[in-house]
Write a structure and sequence with these properties.
Elements lengths: L7 H9 L4 E5 L2 E4 H17 L7 E5 L4 H12 L3 E4 L6 H11 L3 E4 L4 H5 L9 E4 L7 H5 L15 E6 L9 E5 H15 L6 E4 L6 H4 L4 H4 L3 E4 L8 H8 L3 E4 L3 H6 L14 E4 L4 H11 L3 E5 L9 E2 L10 E2 L3 E6 L11 E8 L13 H7 E2 L2 E10 L5 E6 L3 E4 L2 E4 H8 L5 E10 L5 E9 L7 H9 L10 E4 L24 E2 H5 L2
Parallel strand pairs: 1-10, 3-4, 3-5, 5-6, 9-10, 9-11, 11-12, 12-13, 24-25
Antiparallel strand pairs: 1-2, 7-8, 13-14, 14-15, 16-17, 17-19, 18-19, 19-20, 21-22, 23-24, 25-26
Helix pairs in contact: 1-2, 2-3
Length: 508
Amino acid sequence: MEDKGFISCLQARAAASPDAIYATFDGEPISFADLHRKSDSVAVELRRLGVAKGDRVALMLRNSPDSLAVLFAIAKCGAVWVPVNVQLRGDGLKYILEHSEPRVVFANRDLFPNVLECGADTTAFRLVAETGAPDSLDRLVAGGHVFSESLPGADDLFALNYTSGTTGRPKGVCVTHRMLRYASEGAMLCSDARDGDVFFVWEPLYHIGGAQLIPIPLLRDVRLSMVQRFSASRFWDDVRECGATQIHYLGGVLQILLKQPESARDRDHKVRVAWGGGCPRDIWRAFEERFGIPLRECYGMTESSSITTFNATGVLGSVGMPVPWLSVEILDDQGKPVAAGASGEIVVHPRQEGAVFAAYFRNEEATAKALRPNGFHTGDLGMLDASDNLYFLGRLTDSVRVKGENVSAFEVEHVAGGHPLVEDCALIGVKAEVGEQEIKLFIKPKAGADIDYLSFSDWLAQRLAPFQNPRYLAVIDDFERTPSQRIMKHRLPTSVEGSWDRLQETGR
């Protein structure tokens, strides 16, 4: 692997093939020369705005050609990109802006009120709109400047990716240029990328699922086809229109696509591979058969360069084997390896320099908890089979203790999600009158479905151990989700008022 990360490849590609297409955005082409020229101009303007090497620059921008240009400009001038979810507001946004202390914040104009009203000290940074002002991003892009400084090294800090998590404050993962290069190399391995491929990109660039795709056209003869956001109803039409050969999935995307009405055009596409993370075992084959696409499941975290393992063999339910620059083992509570087939914490080790993060930004306690002498402790539960295939079994912390038993949210949600009237569901622990916790299950019914709590609870009782069966049930119109479509459980109400109570209704 080249020792310069990824940013030097842009100048080389722009010189060798200036008119070649790096990406399209809503069908409009972006050439390597355009991207190089525009990012050069923004890099010079960042210096004018007082951004020095190592300074943070926050981007609260929706995907666009200009957001790509400023992202590459940040990389060129050695600044540190702080991706900010455009849905953030209030205290969550205030925390990231105060914790990362950016010199400049770029934001879409309609998001200015969220920035100005979140409670952060807005005099501490320069707020720049994407358009419509003298110093707006669209004007910086058009400046025509040439950036002539030396490019940053592979181990220089490139981004602070604040992990969404489900509890507590987000942690800023320190991602180097080398780590993003590893992430892209891992994505290419998982997706079986080949010259001529077209990657359909619906993911926001402020999530690692989108960010890991950015260097790929610099490393292989492939093209990105970008759209502004994920749309279940338009998904396959967009894929057909751009000629995509690759689709990426995260969170509940596959389930959402499967729930769309069947069509005679379900196999009318050029997609060769669907790859990503979070595919439940019970829909794996159904998706492959309906859409005629093999699934290649992977597992990883931002902390370990996004992709740790990938499934190249098609073993049902497995997230596969490690990428060449990482290794994994399963450890018990005492930090000792477990036997094949036994579950424990997934612990990751770098096999090449810089493949695992060095720290959480300004968070020594969280860094020490995760990075230990015996490896990076992911906080995830997993199992290795006799052939060293890894199976992801859920978050260690995403469990509830009921009557002395640990209940995995993953297990209960997997069963409940199989009910014919359920579109999605989420489990949390709530305070118990006696003992540690009780289970509260939130249910999003399929369109037009009406959940009968008693019959649903009886259905679960036939499939779960008594201590796993939720005491409280609540129907919800929709879930708040992270950019990767994961449910934000910390936003779900812990009050049981108004919930259906199995104990009160049935006495059992």
